[in-house]
From TrEMBL:
InterPro entries: Chaperone_TCP-1, Chaperonin_TCP-1_CS, Cpn60/GroEL/TCP-1, GROEL-like_equatorial_sf. Keywords: ATP-binding, Chaperone, Cytoplasm, Nucleotide-binding. Belongs to the TCP-1 chaperonin family. GO terms for molecular function: ATP binding; ATP hydrolysis activity; ATP-dependent protein folding chaperone; unfolded protein binding. GO terms for cellular component: cytoplasm. It is found in: Cytoplasm. This is T-complex protein 1 subunit alpha. SUPFAM superfamilies: GroEL equatorial domain-like. It comes from the Eukaryota. Gene3D superfamilies: GroEL-like equatorial domain. Heterooligomeric complex of about 850 to 900 kDa that forms two stacked rings, 12 to 16 nm in diameter.
Length: 129
């Protein structure tokens, strides 16, 4: 979106197709990479510093994700997914983020191999049964 000097949108540009898909997957994989190293018994702790300088050391995916200032829409959906997982189950936030990112990454590979996105989604729905 282009803005004039006052910050008002004057010409809107929309991304579509492969550009949007690539942007979404890059954002989601980036978020998954942040929490991936904290998973499991040999997972590493993360040191988070907030805007006022308070330090938090944790290996909990929900805590890590809640401290991030996520702006990308697809990454925000992933953070919400992790929050929902934390509220419903109380654990597994890191795993659900990594799993979702991997599913998106593999779906993108299928789409690049000329498999229609609706076919990929139908396959994922079938796998749920």
């Amino acid at each position: 979106i282009k803005l004039d000097m006052s910050g008002v949108s004057i010409i809107g540009e929309r991304e579509q197709g492969q550009d949007v898909r690539t942007s979404n997957i890059t954002a989601v994989i980036g978020l998954a990479n942040i929490v991936k190293t904290s998973l499991g018994p040999q997972g590493l702790d993360k040191m988070l510093v907030d805007s006022i300088g308070d330090v938090t050391i944790t290996n909990d995916g929900a805590t890590i994700l809640s401290q991030l200032e996520v702006e990308h829409p697809a990454a925000k959906v992933l953070v919400e997914l992790a929050n929902l997982q934390d509220k419903e189950v109380g654990d597994g936030t890191t795993s659900v983020v990594i799993l979702a990112a991997e599913l998106l990454k593999r779906a993108n590979n299928l789409v690049k191999n000329k498999i229609h996105p609706t076919t990929v989604m139908a396959g994922y729905r079938l796998a749920l049964k």
